[in-house]
Amino acid sequence: MGFLGFIKGFSSVYRAKPRIRAYPSFCQHGHCYIQCRTFSHFKDHDDSVLPVLIVGAGPVGLVLSILLTKLGIKCSVLEKSKSFSHHPQAHFINNRSMEVFHKLDGLAEEIQRSQPPVDLWRKFVYCTSLTGPVLGSVDHMQPQDFEKVVSPVCVAHFSQYKLIRLLLKKLEDLNFLICKPEGLNDEPFRGGELLMGHECVKINATGQSVNVTASHLKEGKYTERNISCNILVGTDGAASTIRKLAGIELRGEKDLQKLLLGVLVAHDLKQGEFVLQIPFYPPQQSLDDFSPETCKQLILKLVGQELSDIDVIDIKPWVMHAEVAEKFVSCDNRIILAGDAAHRFPPAGGFGMNTGIQDAHNLAWKIAAFVKGIAPSSILHTYETERRPIAIFNTALSVQNFRAAMAVPATLGLDPTIANSVHQTITDGIGSILPSGLQRAVLDRIFTIGRAQLSEFLLNEKNLLGSSRLAKLRRLFEEGKSLQLQFPAEDLGFRYLEGALIPDSDSVRAQVPPTGRRRDYIPSSDPGSRLPHMNVRMLSNSFSEACISTLDLLPGDKVEFLLFIAPLEKSYHLAVAALKVAEEFKVSVKVCILWPTDTVKGAETRSKTALAPWENYIDVAEAKKSSNSFSWWSMCQMTDKGAILVRPDEHIAWRAKSSIDDDPILEMKRVFSAILKVNI
């Protein structure tokens, strides 16, 4: 179990402007609660059943509500807490999540403008105290991470509570109401409400809907209200009520490790904002042992000098698990889990929030396809088919990364396995017969011995043992065997092997198991992969100089597929077939004709003639950075005679590596039937 303290200060160490303050009220953050006395303004929607109800207003629930609203799906959100947490919590946003945010009306760019300068967070620094000797440092950013070659955006470092503020603003821009329970009447939800202080206490799934009972405090008394919805999504965190009420079990390892060293995360050096993670060993220790004053003294010891401007904002315990829900979808595809409700990772590598955001991105278009009548409810089960293996993979990677983190204290003589064994003996073994005070004294003695391993008397080049340990530590860092922050191959290169896609014979191969070390991303057009990024130039008259990413060719406000072809006769025939079949399946398809840079003359006229009377197409040209850059089809490891069909979530649903010789109409019917799970 770990223990988190959220701290403001350290200005005398980092020369930030001194500041001592408590967080202002939520309303001062620019998101005032609205006393919703009536929902009568939803006059054009009289159905008493809400299409989607989301329980949990963390980043995952808020992102899902934004995505659904942009897709035209009415949803409401319940949040148990009466106000949003000010605890920084997650802070690393990986490439793929930033790509999702890039499509949310410039959210990624807003995060990049607001985040601390990269030089203030790119390194992990290992030291015995903030004023003591530096044992080593690891730079987690490489030059290519800033060049936007594999992605249109970069990773970011941005505290979760700040992200939630921005997400709430995006919801408000979409006419969502953020409401407290006071003054609410009993009218059915119409969509577009985020209700604070509402706790789900009961669910009952019927054949066509889910009935939810929510409890809230109103005029000093707890009041229950019933809400009917077609789909219930639990994004309510690691201790998910929805998961428990649905009877879904977690599988994996509980209570993985105890922290041995203090970990200080600088969430914002300029603001003097830090999170300190320290060991917490119940039952010998309790939350009462860590008062703000006690935590302040721990901070002073860590800093190594007196400070006058420390403000301990929040203190909370946490337990490290590595578990994945046995299923993500239940009750005839009516109840769905996402984010921490579906998977609980060690924090190493920042996979928790990022995996959850990508859960929401995978799920949103499928819910929209079902609600709009494009696909049957079985499309929702492909969410579990695709995302659960990713969660299991990321769990293994997070555990590997956590164990790499523990290699550092082990190298310094603080073996985590020994410490945990001793604690278990004290708690459950022979030590359990000792009085609690004596148990605590033994635990304190262990801490004292551990701290002695980090003393400058021992840990220096003149001491034989200390010199040997420092040499081993340097090798650990040089070989990349310590805690890692970036995993480009996993962040961008994860692939769905089955689900709402058609695997081809070339792509049916096992994923490379996690190594726990950084590996570079290699673009792939395998079905299930995320569409490779390349800058392309629009060839329409009004946008002749505009360059965008291939990822930006998919809109975020409709369930639309994108078919990439080259300007070849057979490919145009395939595109016409795709457009005809898509109309039959009541789904939108846009055709993207990708022209080589040197052959764009007459592109618009040729495509217009070949695709008439269809108009849902776009001509683009490769915008190569240099003559040595790969062409689009080479990067996709295909010839230009092939075609790539991309889903609304920017993952590849199907590809043809060469031209289609059979009837293209029959082929596209087979493709859309398999992807959308529609019987023909």
TrEMBL record:
- Any one Pfam family match given in the protein's UniProt record, by short name: Rng_hyd_C
Record key words, sorted: FAD, Flavoprotein
Q: Which GO terms describe its molecular function?
A: FAD binding; oxidoreductase activity, acting on paired donors, with incorporation or reduction of molecular oxygen, NAD(P)H as one donor, and incorporation of one atom of oxygen
Task: Provide one Gene Ontology biological process annotation.
Answer: ubiquinone biosynthetic process
Ranges where the FAD-binding domain occurs: 51-391
| Keyword flag Flavoprotein | yes
Q: Which GO terms describe its cellular component?
A: mitochondrion
Q: Does the keyword Calcium apply?
A: no
Could you tell me what this protein is called?
FAD-binding domain-containing protein
The scientific name of the source species is Salix viminalis (Common osier)
